[in-house]
Design brief:
11 helices, binds fe (ii) ion
């Protein structure tokens, strides 16, 4: 989804003294709703947020606080894309730094597209946010063209769409492959993780 040069020019974010500091759900949603007006982008961000929470809970076995940190990174990762695309993702990073939020969350947001922002994903949170940025969009596009939506969607169908370069052409196959490699996740496993969990977000 990123087309222009958005290099951040730095690799250190936030203040280590703010470790563990997060926004409340209420404050996060207020920021989300006031900055992001495009319903399609909102849905994308909600999908990524839900996937991040699920991964934190199921694969990382994190407690509620940990799950919220992951969800928050997903919820706000594109917060500035709608109204300030040329400041993506500088603006949201600066906002979260000003609000003294945990550097782990800010770093994950800064590295969610390292080919564009120049920040390499290092932590598990960084890598999963990057991995969840592109593939869910293709899976969602696929659900919209299926009569039953997510119902009965399988791995084979998603992989077929992935191979069709013209299908959801803005979804970067290069980023998907790179993200899987960095996170050491098999593409098939990632697809199968996403389908049933994203289906729940779409129903809301
Ligand atoms: Fe995104």
């Amino acid at each position: 989804m990123h087309t222009m040069s958005l290099q951040l020019g730095r690799t250190v974010f936030g203040d280590p003294a703010n470790k563990g500091r997060v926004l409340s759900r209420e404050d996060a949603l207020e920021l989300f709703n006031s900055w992001v007006l495009n319903p399609k982008l909102k849905l994308h961000m909600l999908q990524v947020a839900a996937l991040m929470r699920s991964w934190a809970a199921e694969k990382e076995q994190l407690d509620e606080a940990g799950q919220w940190r992951w969800e928050l990174a997903g919820l706000l990762h594109d917060a500035d894309w709608d109204q300030w695309p040329d400041l993506h993702c500088k603006k949201i990073i600066e906002e979260l730094e000003q609000r003294q939020i945990d550097p782990e969350i800010i770093r994950a947001i800064a590295s969610h597209g390292h080919l564009h922002f120049g920040v390499i994903p290092e932590t598990q949170m960084d890598k999963l946010l990057y991995a969840f940025d592109e593939l869910p969009g293709l899976i969602h596009a696929y659900s919209l063209m299926r009569p039953g939506g997510y119902e009965g969607m399988d791995l084979k169908g998603v992989k077929k769409r992935l191979k069709e370069k013209s299908f959801a052409a803005n979804v970067s196959r290069e980023d998907i492959a790179d993200a899987c490699e960095r996170a050491a996740i098999q593409l098939d496993d990632l697809i199968q993780f996403i389908i049933p969990r994203q289906a729940l977000v779409a129903e809301k």
